[in-house]
Each structure stands twice: as C-alpha cells, then as structure tokens.
Write a structure and sequence with these properties.
16 strands, L-arginine/glycine Amidinotransferase, Chain A, alpha/beta, three-stranded mixed beta sheet, 334 residues, 11 helices, single chain, 28% helix, four-stranded mixed beta sheet
Length: 334
C-alpha cells in the first residue's frame, strides 16, 4: 500500500510546536522567541480549537511556557531536542490507507552546519507521543525541503535536495525514487535556489507553497533592494510551466515579500511570508515589523484562504534563529 502526505490544509489531529528552551543558543533572543512561540500556540489553540502540543525541554523552559500559556488549552509535552525546528528534525506524518505513519529520516544538521545533541531523537519522540508507527528511512531529508499538495505532488529546490552535503552523489532520479518510495511522491517539481543566506540551503517552505489543489503561491519582490527578486521571478516562471501529479497546469499566485531584512551584521536574512502555517481554521503568517508590507501580505494570503481566519504575528525573534512558524511546527493529519 502506497503512502500519501496530505496537504497542509487537510484536517489535523494535532500540531506540534517547538518551544525555545536553550539559553546558550538563543541568548538575548530567548525570552522574545518564547513569547512569539507562545503567541503562535495561543492563536492555534484558543480561537480555533486546534490541538496544540508544545514540545519543551528542561524545567526552566517548562515553567516559562506554563506562565506564558496560563489559561490556554495548549498541551505542554516534555522532551529532548537540540533546537525547535520540528519541521526538519521531526517526522513527516503520512497516510497509508487509514493508518497514519510517522516517516523518519536521517537528520545531519542541514548539511553538517548545526549538529546539536538530541535533534536526531526528535522523530522517535514525536512518533511515540502521537501513538503512530515510525518508519525509518536511511537517507537525509528535512520536512521543510518539501511542500505537498495531497495528490502526490511535491515542491522542492535543487539547491537543497541535490546538495552534496545531504546525500552525496545522488542525482535527480535517485531523489525522485526515494521520495516516491518513502512518501508516495509521484511528481516532483524542481525549483532552483532558495532565499539568500538561508542556512537550510534553500528550503522550499520559504519560497513556494501549495495553497489549494492546482494552485501554488510564491513571493513577488518588494522594494528595489529586495535581494531575492531574481529568484522569485525565476520561481514563478518555473511554476507557471509545471503540472501537478494529476497532469493539471499549476496556477501561480504571488505574495509580497518582506523586502530586504538585515541581521545585526547587516547581511540579508531569509525573512519570508511564505513560512506561514495552515491550521484547521486559521492561517498564521509571520511578520517582520513593516506595517504596510505586512498588511499587503495578509490581504494576499486571505484571498488564498477565504474560509480561514488569517492571523499575522511577529516572528522577528524567531528569525534570529534562522526560521519562522512553519519551521517550528509539524502537523499530524486526522
């Protein structure tokens, strides 16, 4: 029996969220990142009734999470992890007939950049806590490198999945075979590069996302100095010439990018409105401080999800760690 990864807009049984727990990693950004994560958890759990399972590590983090989420329905789950990027360290939940399975892969710290203790045990913990059977695949893959439409189509980038720091020597055909065998992917749509200075080597969840059957969204640059304008336009062109696993040409929609966002060293950081999270009744969009562009992005996302509540929340502290809302979560299908 083959696998199928449901689209993110399909019903969820739960959403897992990683809670910043390591002061040595986050330093002065720890408390702000914890506050942003708690705001995300509340937005998912309280108005919309999503089951939110917040993974925390250590007594101090558990106490902080309990304080920030007092009175909410968020479940606090104790665990072991290196950092909060559950999209990449956790399993990809798939359906195999009526059974939900937790598909686990080798995690090598995004090509050896960040090897943290316990990150390689996250998939096992989430599978056990969710009560789903874990299926182990012996090749390197992170969940943020793929986006799924629920019909067997996956988006990815060559920069990531053909990078020799993942599965050395693999060619396109070998990747496609592995994705088909492990996740039931029938059609892989290959994009080029991801965002500038993205330490994940171009994860697609910062670049292009399925938003409905046959419909995919990607950014359009904002401002003359947007460092990713060429990549965005090349992505839109590639998507516009692609078909999904059903043979249907893709419709491409554009969401305004945040423009140039710089870190403390004045280098561009991979800020993206595409790192939104689709929940059962809401879509949570990361925002980066500019009210005008935030409003434009929220309007664009709302037009794509008219039946869901679109909520924009600050993600500037989380971005200091390299990611945003989609990166710190993983949905468990109903």
């Amino acid at each position: 029996m083959s696998f199928l990864v449901p689209a993110e807009w399909a019903p969820h049984r739960a959403i897992w969220v990683g809670f910043p727990s390591h002061e040595e990693l986050w330093q002065e950004d720890l408390a702000p990142a914890q506050a942003e994560t708690a705001a995300l958890a509340r937005a998912l759990a309280d108005p919309g009734g999503e089951r939110v399972r917040l993974l925390v590590m250590g007594d101090a983090a558990a106490a902080r999470a309990k304080s920030l989420l007092e009175g909410s329905r968020v479940e606090i789950v104790r665990g072991l992890f290196g950092d909060i990027w559950l999209r990449d360290t956790g399993p990809i939940f798939a359906k195999r007939g009526v059974e939900t399975v937790a598909c686990a892969f080798t995690f090598n710290g995004w090509g050896g950049k960040y090897n943290l203790e316990h990150d390689d045990a996250v998939a096992e913990q989430l599978a056990a806590a969710s009560g789903n059977r874990r299926l182990i695949n012996d090749f390197v893959l992170e969940g943020g490198a793929l986006d799924h439409d629920g019909f067997g189509t996956a988006l990815t980038t060559r920069q990531c999945l053909l990078n020799p720091n993942r599965n050395r020597g693999w060619k396109q055909a070998e990747v496609e075979q592995a994705l088909g065998d492990s996740l039931g992917v029938k059609t892989t749509i290959w994009l080029g590069d991801g965002l500038l200075n993205d330490h994940t080597d171009g994860h697609v969840d910062n670049l292009a996302r399925f938003v409905a059957p046959g419909v995919v969204a990607c950014p359009i640059s904002f401002g003359r100095n947007d460092p990713n304008s060429t990549v965005f336009d090349e992505t839109a062109k590639l998507l516009g010439g692609s078909k999904d696993a059903r043979g249907i040409p893709l419709q491409v929609m554009r969401i305004p990018s945040p423009g140039l966002i710089q870190g403390p060293d004045h280098r561009a950081v991979p800020a993206s409105h595409m790192n939104f999270l689709v929940a059962n009744e809401a879509v949570i969009v990361p925002l980066y401080g500019d009210e005008r562009i935030s409003g434009m992005a929220l309007d664009a996302v709302q037009s794509l999800f008219p039946e869901r509540r679109v909520v924009g929340l600050s993600s500037t502290a989380l971005l200091s760690g390299g990611g945003s809302f989609h990166c710190i979560t993983q949905q468990e299908p109903a």
